[in-house]
Specification:
The chain is α/β, with parallel strands linked by helices. The chain has two domains: 409 residues, Amidase signature (AS) enzymes, CATH 3.90.1300.10; 63 residues, no CATH class. Helices cover 39% and strands 13% of the residues. The chain has an eleven-stranded mixed beta sheet, sandwiched between helices. α9 links the parallel β7 and β8. It is globular, with a radius of gyration of 21 Å. The relative contact order is 0.14.
């Protein structure tokens, strides 16, 4: 099979071709490595490519097939990994100078599962530093460029994962989502991205930003591929105290099922403020298409949604302030030595962390300080409870809640870096389901007049990812979405 033909295969098609012997895992891996060498100097999706290790993993898959062994669900499929997931023997930096050169001695739980199913870990992907950002411009090693338009952001913080998926630099990728970090870049790059229910996927080996919000999620070319990835990484892990011990649904089997009669909740007034006209038009067209598929559109309300941004930017920085205290230059990563211990801490953290990370650490430390905890952090947690209650009440009337994923298509690199609030506003639709801890995904729903992808967010109750998969797959099939940008 030719290199170009391999790039056109979806994850599920490629895994089937490897299992059938139509293409070898080594051929698939070499084709992806070649494409990375050709395209990534412009896109800058990868921080580290493990050429030798990937080919060795692929050889093991081919050897297993030659022995007649049953192959896994990801047999021979090249997978890119966001650089905040620990990978044994490979650098894991969180795109930060403070962890430059750090090599973990263990794999994250999700990496163990990828390897167990024959997936080929091909490299580590660029991101906003410590997953703090909405444009991938906060990376200490330079921004990622959107494959649809190299002058624009791919979104963040999983910008490298979204760009690599869209450009065929991996068959699928793993990212992390705290407040929208797989869904928003999924929207900007025209790929499918799933944030699982909190506790569905183990966080063991995910370097923490905000522990009560962080989740690992897949990005893929379509919902079937994303569903297979989600099935592989889901499940209980006793090493993560927040991992829930309950059966994992067969998500992929939901693809192709009828969606007639599904009740789709549409939030009243959700697109009235701060939403680009192209997003409004694409979202309205998507609702019309779902109605033509037999879905019942139902008005729902999320009365506290406007407070999600404020609550998130108190809770997440507070948890980041605590989590990032461990990066002090003593045990691993950057150390800037000084005359005394306190100065060494200060200089190491001052040199190692970028401006956005420092901003959030300071904000988080402030809201947790004596005299301010009740006024800020505790009140934000109460708002979080109200937002979760809003979704619970909405799901009494519908099966899935729909919103746009982002208020605009991908914006220009540098356009919002001088205005943090404007940057934070890019997550206004993705923050409420994150705070509620429910399942959510972004699926492509159209193009702007400039030819840029626009995403639609599907939200479902806890552990009901199968509803998202069923509806998302039916919608993608109906519109005939092609996730490839021009020149693919």
């Amino acid at each position: 099979m030719s290199v170009d033909a391999i790039h056109q295969l979806s994850l599920t098609q490629l895994a089937a071709a490897v299992s059938a012997g139509e293409v070898s895992a080594v051929e698939a891996t070499r084709a992806t490595l070649e494409r990375i060498a050709q395209r990534d100097p412009t896109t800058h999706a990868y921080l580290h490519v493990d050429r030798e290790g990937a080919l060795q993993q692929a050889s093991q898959v081919d050897a297993a097939r030659a022995r007649g062994e049953a192959l896994g669900a990801l047999a021979g499929v090249p997978i890119g990994i966001k650089d905040n997931l620990c990978t044994r023997g490979l650098p894991t930096t969180c795109a930060s100078k403070i962890l430059e050169g750090y090599v973990p001695p263990y794999d994250a739980h999700v990496i163990e599962r990828i390897r167990a199913e024959g997936g080929v870990v091909i490299g580590k992907l660029n991101m906003d530093e410590f997953a703090m950002g909405s444009s991938n411009e906060n990376s200490a090693f330079g921004p990622v460029r959107n494959p649809w338009d190299a002058t624009r952001t791919p979104g963040g913080s999983s910008g490298g994962a979204a760009a690599a998926t869209a450009e065929g630099l991996a068959a699928a990728t793993l990212g992390s989502d705290t407040g929208g970090s797989v869904r928003q870049p999924g929207s900007y790059c025209g790929v499918t991205a799933i944030k699982p229910t909190y506790g569905r996927v183990s966080r063991y080996g995910l370097i923490a930003f905000a522990s009560s919000l962080d989740q690992v999620g897949p990005l893929a070319r379509d919902m079937r591929d994303a569903a297979r990835m989600l099935g592989v990484i889901s499940g209980h892990d006793p090493r993560d105290a927040t991992s829930v011990d309950r059966p994992v649904d067969d998500y992929e089997s939901e693809c192709g099922k009828d969606v007639r009669g599904m009740r789709v909740g549409v939030v009243k007034g959700m697109t009235d403020r701060g939403c680009d006209a192209s997003v409004k038009d694409a979202f309205a067209a998507a609702l019309s298409r779902l109605s033509s598929l037999g879905c019942e559109l139902v008005d729902v309300d999320l009365p506290h949604r406007d407070h999600a941004l404020s609550a998130y930017y108190i809770i997440a920085p507070a948890e980041a302030s605590s989590n990032l205290a461990r990066f002090d230059g003593m045990r691993y990563g950057l150390r800037v030595s000084s005359d005394d211990l306190q100065s060494t801490y200060a200089r190491s953290r001052g040199a190692g962390f970028g401006p956005e990370v420092k901003r959030r650490i300071m904000l988080g430390t402030y809201v947790l300080s004596a005299g301010y905890y009740d006024a800020f952090y505790l009140k934000a947690q109460k708002v979080r409870t109200l937002i979760k209650r809003d979704f619970t009440q909405a799901f009494e009337r519908c099966d899935v809640v729909l919103t746009p994923t982002a208020p605009s298509p991908a914006f220009k690199l540098g356009e919002k870096t001088g205005d943090p609030l404007s940057m934070y506003m890019q997550d206004i639709f993705t923050l409420p389901p994150s705070l509620a801890g429910i399942a959510a995904a972004s699926v492509p729903c159209g193009l702007s007049p400039e030819g840029l992808p626009i995403g639609m967010q599907l939200c479902a109750p806890e552990f009901e990812e199968k509803r998202i998969v069923r509806l998302g797959h039916a919608f993608e099939t109906a519109i005939g979405w092609n996730s490839h940008p021009a020149g693919y």
